[in-house]
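Lab notebook, page 48
Experiment: co-folding of the full assembly
Goal: obtain a model of how the components sit together before planning crosslinking
Operator: M.T.
Materials (sequences as entered):
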Amino acid sequence: MSDVLISASGLTRYYESGELKVAALDGVDLLIERGAYVVLAGRSGSGKTTLLNMLGGLDRPDSGSLVIAGQNLLTMSSAGRARFRLCHLGFVFQAYNLIRVLSARENVAYVLQLQGVKKKQRFQLADQWLARVGLQGFENRRPDQMSGGQQQRVAVARALATEPDLVLADEPTANLDSHTGESLMDLMRKLNEERCTTFVIASHDPAVIASARTLITMQDGKIAPVETL
Amino acid sequence: MLSLAWRNVVRNARRSLITVSAVALGLASLIFLWGFNDGVHNTMMRNLQQVIVGSIQVHANGFFHHPQLVKTVPDSGLVIRLLKANGIKNFSYRLRTFALAAGEDSSEGLVLLGMNPDMEKKATRIAAKVDHGRFIHDNDEAACVLGKTTARNLGVSIGDDVVFLTEDRYGALAAEKLTLVGIISSGEMGIDRGLAIIPLGFLQQMTAMGGRHSEIVVQLPPERLEPVTAVLRAKLGKSYEVLRWYDMYPMMKQWVELENAFYYIFLSIVLVIVAAGIMNTALMSMLERMHEFGVMMALGCGRLRLAAMVVTESLLLGLAGIMAGTVAGLALVYYFHGAGIDLSSQMDSVARFYLNPVIHTEIDNTHLLDTVMAVLAASVAASIWPAIRAARLEPVEAIHHA
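Observation: model returned without errors.
Model output:
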């Protein structure tokens, strides 16, 4: 019997633009198993990021249901969703989004700090994760002292440091050159294989799409049939 | 969180420095103004006590409001034993009555105050206020000291005779001719006019009041005023009245309190300015970092924690300003405590208020603490609105904020 991590049904989200009501998500049904490596593909405006925001508990649908890791996100309070994100989710953003005033080690350790991990232990864990993503020796560098690829690796380390059930990545390679992007995808896929962490990656980068084990294509807020490669 | 908040404060070092400087300048000004204010007030209160009134006076009950020659301290010996038992050495006996003084040209009604010159030097500085001539120096000599205005009104100068006419304890008229040996020019109307000081022994003999005293004047450091008053009141009972200087001259204390109230109003105006400066910085800093706040919320940072970080940043700005402002303000107070601020050009008007021509700044711990705590509170209060705004952010909107 398969182990379902994400179960979404009839997810709908409208945005209002003046008098116009646009469906960013239009009745999306989705089942994703634990340990999956999913790429959400589709053009800009197809609803990838909106779906990712729903899965991350950052946005709420107008209707539908969403259960992740056995918890109903739609009945949670704002504080509950924050706790859920902290304990179950990791994020990798297009623009890296590291905290500018913190070093690579501190950026990774920040989420552990939010979880209440003691300083010495969280710095040890942060160093281990930085080494794991190939950034040994970069622990004390600030984001502005690192390349885009290095920053995104720090972001991956940060996303995985809390050992989440699910990592959500929004256009992770969009700001990277193709070589660095490929290298990052290799890393994420390797981490998925080794740790069985579920990855859901929104991208329209062909290289990212090519790396998918499960490809979900979105168009006009709807999902095309799931394709397992 | 403290480390992150501190780094956020220094990330825009110039803006933070301007805010810290504004807080420091405001606080240093307030501390200096308090220093001047407290210097003036404490000088006035010290002078009032040290020139003639003393910190405490012990009388027979009801004497202060209805003074009579025969209403004397029931047992001076008991009072002195109590004072000595409490380690108090600076006190003096006095005898007080009313008299008519006659000089070359005219006569004038006045208070006749008998003082023991040796004891009085321990209790007050009235001897130092003698401007011409000398203070009485023998407890039994037939000499008197007059205020400048009284001497002028009577038309007498040093070496002249002054005749005093009063009643003795039996109601019989008593008259004596004394030599004017000193003239006091204190600037204070209550001393310069309507007061004659003569030796205690002489007055006791003149009024048949040997061994009796109207008042015992005690000089104390400010911190001992209340406890010693309480002890004396408890031990002496109802046949005595133990009055603090401000029980006898409440106007002075009320005036000081009124002026302090004005300073507190001024303090609150400066606080509003300080708070506005900090709030401006906190709000700008918060608006600039909306994207980062969104990311932090996405990572699992709760709204309260985010708000606490904004408050901590303001608190750090406030604390830095407080440290700098306190050092600068106290340095000014310390400098002018030594150098003084010369008000001699205003002396004619200030002398009436027991002021010295040069004001030496000093600051009461209560005022310093109140001011520092108020600036600290303003720093926190200034961050509340930015903190609420940060806490109300929606992660998705914040992340997409440019």
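Interpretation: The first strand of chain A starts at residue 4 and ends at 17.
Next step: discuss with group before ordering constructs.
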